[in-house]
Structures are given as structure tokens and as C-alpha cells.
Design a protein that fits this description.
The complex is a heterodimer of chains A (495) and B (95).
Chain A (H helix, E strand, L loop, with lengths): L2 H6 L2 H9 L5 H14 L6 E4 L1 H16 L10 E5 L26 H8 L3 E6 L38 H8 L5 E6 L5 H7 L2 E4 L19 E6 L2 H11 L29 E5 L9 H16 L3 E5 L4 H19 L17 H12 L2 H14 L5 H23 L4 E5 L16 H5 L6 H6 L3 E8 L5 E8 L4 H14 L12
Parallel strand pairs in A: 2-3, 2-4, 7-8, 7-9
Antiparallel strand pairs in A: 1-3, 4-6, 5-6, 5-10, 9-11, 10-11
Chain B lengths: L4 H10 L6 H18 L34 H5 L5 E2 L2 E2 L7
Antiparallel strand pairs in B: 1-2
The chains are: A alpha/beta (495), B mainly alpha (95).
Amino acid sequence: MAKLDLNNLTLAGARDALRAKDFTALELTEAHLEAMEQARALNAFIVETPDQARAMAKAADARLAKGEAGPLEGIPLGIKDLYCTQGVATTAGSHILEGFVPQYESTVSSQLWRDGAVMLGKLNLDEFAMGSSNETSHFGPVTSPWRRQGSNVALVPGGSSGGSAAAVAARLCLGATATDTGGSIRQPAAFTGTVGIKPTYGRCSRWGIVAFASSLDQAGPIARDVRDTAILLRSMAGFDPKDSTSVDRPVPDYEAALGHSIKGKTIGIPKEYRVDGMSPDIEALWQQGIAWLRAAGAKIVDITLPHTAHALPAYYIVAPAEASSNLARYDGVRYGLREQGRDIIDMYEKTRAAGFGKEVRRRIMIGTYVLSAGYYDAYYLRAQKIRTLIKRDFEQAFAAGVDAILTPATPTAAFGIGEKGAADPIEMYLNDVFTVTVNMAGLPGLVVPAGISAEGLPLGLQLIGRPFEEETLFTLAQVIEDAAPKVTLPEAWWG
Amino acid sequence: MSVDQETVRRIARLARLSLSEADVAPLQGELNAILKFVEALESVNVDGIEPMTSVMPMKLRLRADEVNDGENVAAVTINAPQSEDGFFLVPKVVE
């Protein structure tokens, strides 16, 4: 079988072919290592782990030969460099963590290895997952494999899981881990024509994942289709006593939810998601998505989520507040960078100023300000009350019989590297306007490609579900995937 | 609300971030842009609304109060920029 074929398989296809002995896990891994090396121009990986990948693939082949294959046996994956990996450098995209080699493995990645997956390397991301374009990484921006029709302008893959989305879309891995605090799984998935799900808060353990905003952070997968995403989530999800907000309930077989009828399902269409500045392509896509679900037997109802517009500003209080607290640990004492100072305070201040990039420093400053004496009630407490209202909006819609909500994933298609946010940070923050509500309410949200913009770039739709009803999202997403024109991923111009 | 340059310096000090004089004015502008963006929240009626403390209704679990980890000093200190005999080294704090 030609190498190209091994890179263009779906995860499910590779899994089945490995069991049928069509090729070995080592062959599959070698094909992806080669693709990874040839795609260095995309800057999707911060660390490549070829030796580890080959050792894991050989072990997978041994288990396959003995008939002891796990659910992900021999499947090569990329791991977002926010997940601590034992013995492999973990940077969170930051200078301040350079040289840090975790002595432990994050719960989610350890479950992938338990199930037989192979690690290819660590994927680039916005620094501490703070960004919507992967341009804040200390290790440089990731270039999307996608380009506008007839243009060579380098585009962003979205962020913060930009390396994950780019690597999956460029066929460097069969799937990738990602994390989502305000849209960091779903927006890059939308920008790269891939599928990503942010599960319900508490579904995946946060243990061993570098913290950004703990009440919003959730792990989830990005893959090339709905089925592959469902397969990965099953391995990533599950109770973990080491994460106090991990939820103890059984993990369903998400793949088994695919193909179920959606007849009689009620889909809510929130009018507040029709925002100024939304491209006409996105509006048309949304209407098309509604038509597809209706044609498959779903009942479409207009709903109202009146506090939607407040979600993004409230997020930019809550997330920086939690970040400023979480990032207090980077002080030059226990790990990472240290700059010398004349005393300990001077050492802290110089280390943190040298180690954190511009966007991270900005968010720490805002977070420190909104938590400081005299401002806590006006900002932080008020934002947490508004969060209660945002969640209540969704609860009322679900109580009225809505099974899931359909919205656009992003206000526009992918933009060029350097095009946004240079003068005004808010311009970049507006990318998350459709995704951030879901984190504020702790709900599951899935993005599936649904069409192509006038410039030839992928566009996604978002499905929002009831807590712990990820299965419904997979069922609905599969309907959209089947109805939508098939995504043709870009040919490898990068190497 | 907006911040003046003195507040920017004070917040940087609280956040343990050294700031060059050249950084102050641009940072002030950026922080004020963000504060202006969140100003809209002032108009929301939050009377009688409980602040969110847990996004999923759950009771925090308790575990038995027993030692379940430890004896791994080497693993704990291996990433330290400076350590000696199982201790982290820092600049002198007590004269």
C-alpha cells in the first residue's frame, strides 16, 4: 500500500485495517513520521518524538498479533503541548516552561496510551492556550494547511489548539488532543475543516493539563470526521479521583450513537447568534444546516438566549482572573526559566517578565486588577452572576424541550497571519463570540465542517447539547457531515 | 472605569511582573480597551442572582486523610533551575 494512502485513512479505517493485518502499526507510524518531518514548514509540532513513536508502534504490533488490541491500538496521535507527558518536554507554548520535563503523565493522555495509541509528538498552541490564532506561541505561529483560492497568503489555523487542527487537517496524525477554555477546540476545527468537541465540564480529567482557567478548561479531541472524534472522546473521557471536578459517571460508546435517527429531535435556533459583522457565507451556511436537520426529521424551533451578548465580556473577566491565579506558580523556583535578581521579589518579577509573552502578561494584569481590593465585586463577582444568567438561558431552552442548539462556529472563515489583533486585542477576542457561551455554561459543544466560503475556506457549524449528552451531538453532527459537501483537504504544498 | 499609569505599575507589582517605563503606556491603553469592552456588563440587572461557584452541580468529594503519595524528592526537584540536597535554592530571604 502506498504511503499516501496510509496518511489519508480515517482513524476508524486505520483501526479496522490494523486488525485485518492490511499493514502494521509500525508502517502506519512511519508514514506519519515522514509526513510530520516533511511538514515542518507548518510549525505544527513543538517536539517530535519519533523514537518513542516507533517503540509504541512496535508494542502495538505485538498486542495486535496476540489479539489483545485496545480501542486505539497502533493509532498515531499528536498531543497538544499543554498535556504533561512523562519524560517528554512540555512547554504550554511558553518560554517560562522551556526545559520542563514532567515526571508524570496527564490522565487523559495516559488513557490514550492505555488504549494502545502512539504518540508522534507535542503540538504547538497559543501560549498557555491564550489566543485564537496560534500566533502567541513562543515557538512561532502555526501555518494552516489551507490557503484562499488562488492565494499564497499564510493563514492561521485558529487557536489555541492550532497545532492540533493543522496537524489533523494536513494528515500528519489521525487525530489530536486539544483543550477548550473559550473555543480553543471548536474555532480551530472550524478554520481547518476538521471536527472537534468540547465535552461537558467534568467529562475529561484536567489532571496533568497545564491550567489556564480551571472553571472553564476542558480537554477534547480534534479529528477528520465525526466518527473518529467519537472514538477518541471515549478513550479520553472518564472519572479521575485526582481532578476534584471530574464527574463520576459511565463513559458511553459514543461511536454507537452514530446513525441513530434524529426524527423528532428538537433543534433550537438562537436569534442572538445573528451578530453584526457575520459574513453572508456563515449566515447561508447556518440556514443550510437548519434545512439539513429538518430534512432528516428534526423539529426546528426559534429560541432566545437573552444573555448571549454578555458572555464574551464576562469571559474576559472570569478567564483572566483564574489565569492570574493559576499562573502565579511560575516564579522561577520549581521549574522552567529563572532570571537572576537582586533579591527574591526581583527574581520573581524578572523571571515572569522575561518568561511570559505579551498576551499572557496582558491577561495576568487584567486578572490581577479585577481580583484586586475594591474591584472584586464590581468585576469578578458581577461576572460570576452573569455566568449564572447565561447558564439559566440554556437551562430554560432545554427545559422547554430543546435537545440541541445549532449555531455558526465562528463569525468568519480563517484569516491571515498578522491580520488581526495587532492594535486592538478585542478584535481577536471577538473570534470566540459563538463558542465562549458554551464554556461559561459548562455544556458540550461540537463543531463540524458544513461548507466552503467564497474564498474556498472551510466553514463550520456548532451544535450545543445538554450536559453529558455528547451522544446526541455526535448523532446530529453525523447527519450534517453526511448531508454537507465532502471536505477536500488541501494537497500538500508544504513539503 | 479606566486605569491610570500609577495603577498599571501597582498591578504589575501585585502580579510580580517587572515593567519597563516604555511598557507602561501601551499596557495602559490595552487594559483600558479591555475594561471598556467589559463595561457593558454594568447595565445587566444581577439583583438577587447567585454568583456561579460550580458550573456543574456537584458536591466536592472528600477522601480519607491518609498519605497516598511522597518519597519522590528527586522527581519533585529535578526541574528546578537550582536545587541542592532535595531543597529548592532561592536568593537569600532572611538576613
